[in-house]
């Protein structure tokens, strides 16, 4: 993340509910995680104080975030074609 910030990129870092949230854990809710990532990409590009409207979006995630990144890339053509997503890089 530091390297991205050093390059002047806009970085949005979502967080999941974790294991302390009430009810069933959302770990296996991959489709919902993918949608949430795409919602974040659209929201960041729409912020008036950030010059990111036409910027490409790279989705990167590690572990649970990697699964969310994969699902976002899979869903993007159908549910968020104008989100600006150019690449997805799940970590290992």
TrEMBL record:
Transmembrane segments: none
InterPro entries referenced in this protein's UniProt entry, alphabetically: AB_hydrolase_fold (IPR029058), Lipase_secreted (IPR005152)
Molecular function GO terms recorded: triacylglycerol lipase activity
GO process terms (BP): lipid catabolic process
Keyword Nucleus in record: no
UniProt superkingdom: Bacteria
Keywords carried by this UniProt record: Hydrolase
Keyword Hydrolase: yes
Protein name according to UniProt: Dienelactone hydrolase domain-containing protein
Organism of origin: Nocardia terpenica
């Amino acid at each position: 993340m530091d390297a991205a910030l050093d390059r002047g990129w806009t970085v949005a870092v979502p967080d999941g509910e974790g294991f302390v949230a009430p009810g069933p854990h959302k770990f296996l809710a991959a489709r919902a995680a993918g949608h949430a990532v795409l919602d974040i990409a659209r929201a960041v590009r729409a912020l008036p104080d950030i010059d990111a409207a036409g910027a490409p979006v790279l989705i990167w995630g590690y572990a649970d975030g990697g699964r969310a990144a994969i699902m976002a890339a899979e869903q993007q053509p159908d549910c968020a074609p104008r989100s600006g997503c150019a690449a997805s890089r799940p970590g290992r």
